[in-house]
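Weekly structure sync, notes
Attendees: PL (lead), two postdocs, one rotation student
Agenda item 3: pending single-chain targets
PL asked that the sequence for the first pending target be pasted directly into the notes so everyone works from the same version. It is reproduced below exactly as submitted, 153 residues in total.
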Amino acid sequence: MKISELLDSKAIVADLQARDKQRALEELTDALVACDLSLDRDEVIAVLQEREKLGSTGIGDGVAIPHGKLAGIPELMLAFGRSRAGVNFESMDGQPAHLFFLLIAPEESVGVHLKTLARISKLLKDAAVRQKLLDAEGQDAIYQAILDEEAQA
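Predicted structure, written out during the meeting:
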């Protein structure tokens, strides 16, 4: 399954305003909830916060992939956010995060959840891809950059 198949272009926040981890989680959750009104915002945030207690999902190189599992959702859901200023996400390398993929998976999913995390990590491991996402002008250009990269994979 491709990232672009899971990511609604309306769930892309091209200019995150957050300056801290909590606010970043809230903004990304708001983007997800705007695409699926059946989601409970507080429940999603609580799941993400619980996961962050285990260790930061800031993987370094300016990337964070906050994720968690939620009962009652039919399929994996993604949101994407970009912060040009950067957010202190307590990343492994101590650097601010600029690119965020928020992933919520059905509680019973294992394989697809892990495969999607791996696919996102692989995509963002490439410095050129990260730069394209940072340079893209707006929501549609970010989505197109993801489509373009996946077409080459």
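Discussion points:
- The CA atoms of residues 61 and 126 lie 10 Å apart.
- The beta strands are 7-13, 58-60, 63-64, 67-70, 77-87, 97-106.
Action: rotation student to compare against the earlier draft before next sync.
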